[in-house]
Amino acid sequence: MKTIRLVSLLLLGVMFYSNVSSQERYSRKERKAHYSSNYNYEVQISGVGQDGTKVMKVWGYGKRVEDAIIEAKMNAVASAIFKGIPGGHGAAATPAILTDPNASEKHADYFETFFSPGGKYLQFITMTTDGMPSGQDRLKMKTGYKVAIYVQVMYDALRKQLEADGIARRLDAGF
Question: pTM score > 0.90 for this model?
Answer without folding.
Answer: no
